[in-house]
Structure formats: structure tokens, C-alpha cells
Design brief:
This protein is mainly alpha-helical. It is built from 4 helices and 2 strands; from the N terminus they run βαβααα. The longest helix is centred in the C-terminal third of the chain and has 18 residues.
């Protein structure tokens, strides 16, 4: 995410949730679903490269808002303050 590269994930669980929340790429609903992965590559990436590249900007912005060192330290400090 920090590089601003769109994500194509074949994942379950929290990784799936993170990619969806950040709107920074495409997620194959269940890991192991190679047919869905191939379909996304063809329809979303190869046929619409501009939209796929735009996801990279969303990816980078989400990273800046949620995962920079400063952001993580601030979040940690808030946790300590509340406990």
C-alpha cells in the first residue's frame, strides 16, 4: 500500500476487509478461486488499465491516513491514554 500500487488479492479475512475498505484494488472472494482471479485480471485490469491505476492513488492515500509511523504512534498513544 505504501508504494501506491493497486492490490489484487486472493485472500480471506482481514486482508479482504482492508482491501475492500480502502477501495485500493480487487479481491477474489475466496482464496483458491483462480477462475474469479483470471476473470478480474481480464475484465478489470487488462481491459481498463486507467481505472486499475487510479486504485493505486487510493491505496497510497489510505496508507498515509492509516499506516504511517506518525499515525500508528498517535493511535498507540490514544490506546494508552484510555487505559
Amino acid at each position: 500500500m505504501s508504494d501506491g500500487v493497486p492490490v489484487l488479492g486472493m485472500v480471506n479475512g482481514s486482508s479482504n476487509k482492508l482491501i475492500s475498505e480502502a477501495k485500493c484494488g480487487y479481491v477474489v472472494v475466496s482464496s483458491g478461486n483462480y477462475r474469479k482471479l483470471a476473470s478480474i485480471i481480464i475484465s478489470k485490469i487488462l481491459n481498463d488499465k486507467e481505472s486499475f491505476e487510479a486504485l493505486g492513488y487510493k491505496d497510497r492515500n489510505y496508507y498515509k491516513k492509516n499506516f504511517t509511523k506518525e499515525c500508528l504512534i498517535n493511535n498507540l498513544c490514544e490506546i494508552f491514554k484510555t487505559n
